[in-house]
Amino acid sequence: MEVSPWIAILATGIVAGIPILLAALGEILAERAGVINLGVEGMMLIGAVVGFMVSLQSNSPWVGLIAAVLAGAMMALIHAFLTITLRANQVVSGLALTIFGTGLSGYLGKSFIGVPLTATFKPVPVPGLSQIPAIGPIFFNHDLLVYIAYGLVALLWFFLFRTRSGLELRAVGENPAAADAAGLNVFLIRYACVIAGGMFAGMAGAYLSLAYAPSWLENMTAGRGWIAVALVIFGVWNPTKAFLGSFFFGTIDVLGFHMQTLGIVVSSFFLKMLPYVFTIAVLIVATRETKTRRVAIPEALGVPYVREER
Amino acid sequence: MQKPHSREDLSYMVEMIGITKRFPGIVANDQISFAVRPGEIHALLGENGAGKSTLMSILTGLYRPDEGEIRLRGQQVHLQSPRDAVQRGIGMVHQHFKLVNSFTVAENILLGLQDGTGEVYQLHEINKKIEACSREYGLQLDPQAKIWQLSVGEQQRAEIIKLLYRGADLLILDEPTAVLTPQEATELYKTLRRMAELGKSVIVISHKLSEVLEHTDAITVLRSGRSVGTVATSGTSEQELTQMMVGRMLCPVLDKANVMPGKPVLTLENVTALGDRGLPALKEVTLTVNGGEILGIAGVAGNGQKELAEVIAGLRAIESGTKWINSVDHTGDTPQAAIHAGVSYIPEDRLGTGLVPNLNAVENILLKMYQKMPGWRINWSQAARDTTAIIKQHDIKIAHLDAPVKMLSGGNLQKLLLGREIFHHPELIVAMYPMRGLDIGAIETIRKLLLEVRAAGKGVLLISEELDELTCMADRIAVFHEGMVMGVVRPQEVTIETIGVMMAGKRMAVAMSGN
Prior knowledge:
Chain A is mainly alpha-helical. Chain A is built from 12 helices and no strands. Chain A has helices spanning 5-32, 40-58, 61-85, 90-108, 135-139, 144-162, 164-174, 176-181, 186-212, 224-234, 239-261, 268-292. In chain A, helix 1 (5-32) packs antiparallel against helix 11 (239-261). The longest helix of chain A has 28 residues, at 5-32. By secondary structure, chain B is α/β, with parallel strands linked by helices. Chain B folds into 3 domains: 14-246, P-loop containing nucleotide triphosphate hydrolases (Rossmann fold); 251-342 and 427-515, P-loop containing nucleotide triphosphate hydrolases (Rossmann fold, 3-Layer(aba) Sandwich); 353-425, no CATH class. Chain B has helices at residues 52-59, 82-87, 105-110, 123-136, 152-165, 182-197, 209-215, 238-246, 305-313, 335-340, 361-367, 380-393, 410-423, 440-455, 467-473, 496-503, 508-513, and strands at residues 14-23, 26-36, 41-45, 67-72, 75-77, 90-93, 170-174, 201-206, 218-223, 226-232, 264-274, 280-290, 293-298, 320-325, 328-329, 343-346, 428-432, 459-463, 476-481, 484-489. Chain B has a 6-stranded mixed sheet, sandwiched between helices. In chain B, strand 17 (428-432), helix 14 (440-455) and strand 18 (459-463) form a beta-alpha-beta unit. In chain B, helix 12 crosses helix 13. Chain B is globular and about 70 Å long. Chains A and B meet through helix 7 and helix 8 of A and helix 2 and helix 3 of B.
């Protein structure tokens, strides 16, 4: 099949966007419930290294994936305990977890650097859909996790905006006192969302080490966790918009590799810088937008909930 | 006074019998009994700390009583939780609404609702049901409107519909008119009356005597945790209620010494200033406060009062016009310069702009004092001495000097703030809603302090929403509407209605002519 370079770029853009997307979906869950999780980067790294190690041992990428998801949940449990139960500063806790995750993953993965992995996720074209010109190769010629990510986007959107639990979750992030008065368990809902967010981050990490670039490298997330946090703002806490954003970021991310095939000569350092420059630009534009129009920043974001009693 | 409950009459919606609730160190409710009939609007009246909130927290399932029983429609109940109370038809509208701003009215009503419909909700069906519910009670509200788009009155309606939708038969409203305009308050009581006519019971917690007298059927008065008694509204008077509330007769005519007005302390000449949104909030304001005089500022909140106070205190820039303090041009003053000129500002939020919540009393007193201390050292012992003197002089109840002032009650905070300001013998006190939220005892103290400042020949600018308060305190009243002075009147020469007409935007001459 003859593939034009643009379709190749967009197809790899989708794949490059998946780890950012998964992490961003988790962050949306947590932030919608009112908890900022800046530990995403660390949770992704832990997920990546644990996923890789378990996959290597068990010889099954699925077992590795499940282990990564659980590892992410464990990390998130620390964050939840610190910020929800102890009401610690969410930013500080998140930063600490990122530093902790970076260090721990480096330590755990030391002997795995350069080890080849056979149990990886491999592309599975979707019968029928992958035959559609342009659309097929861009969206439907990838590994199973990509399709799962598509499904999670739709599922999360429906959950947040069409179900009672979603409504309750959003209420907790907007006005926990009102949610409490309505008989909801604010603490439980926040715990659930932060932990689920950590699971997404772990999965995002596993995607990197099991599918995107099946190997382990120290600090292999290279700031994708941070881009995910920015993506949440860019996507105004909406899963579908986050998907569009991840496609965009992913495409910019892979543009560097493809520049040469397109015959454009640019310094590779410049190209590596691009996603981060765009992150800053997007934050400027997005925050200006959120300031001028009244959009969906959860009102109680970053604020620990204290029940008023005497 | 009627007996709050009698055995043979089972026609009560709710009876609370001999309720006692103790907290460490205090008895918040001591053998309180009271009962509400269906179709009745019942007021719960009392000073701050009289036990009203505790009693209602028991009725809404938040606290469990140590003694006593609650009967609902004749049946004894043990309320386990707020949710339990709601399911039994008891609902409460809190002073601070429990609404999610970014949600629609319908989504707020849906939140936490257990109506047996599935996990996936259909908004248009709920919208229809809400519309039907609001039509029945004459509560106009668009279920699809977002809460932040609604006025405070409409938000309150949303809270009420939320309760009605959950099938509440007994509605408790905590200070419902505190945040409403007079028109909205009238509208609210009309709605409450309609609900009562449909057989519901309404309990209104309030300390506004005139309102309670006008709109309720029965009044139960609480004082320091005990029930003083229940009276039928038709058979009581403001005097009697006040006496029941404070246990002593408040002199309705204030002990106001005759003071000859002195020289102008403050003169504003054609002052224009911008509000927070960059639009003119004060337009060509001209007014004078003389020494030995209280000038009252009347007006519906948000008509330039805050900007006026800030302009005088030097916190807001003057666009055009002149500000004279003691006949010296102080137009471009910084807050510091205004303080040195003798202007003292009692802001609306005593805990925030007025005092620093996390600092203790001595440190708060010091904030206005340290610059006058010689040298570069802070004289802590002097500050502590002065603080003790202020606390003693104004009878401020404070556990110890080292406690952050946010632990103090509203009345004690205001006394501390006013005490600090008076300590420095200001030429002019600008007091913004100084009595708001205080109980009668504290209000009396604050009034006395302001009158003392007046008697000392200094000027007072008193901004208030309570016309009764202004007419009894002020020597002259300037009426504000949309940042303009509608006229300056002497309270004994005009009726409250005239001032009301001026507040609505009629010039004095028009208002006096009766059109």
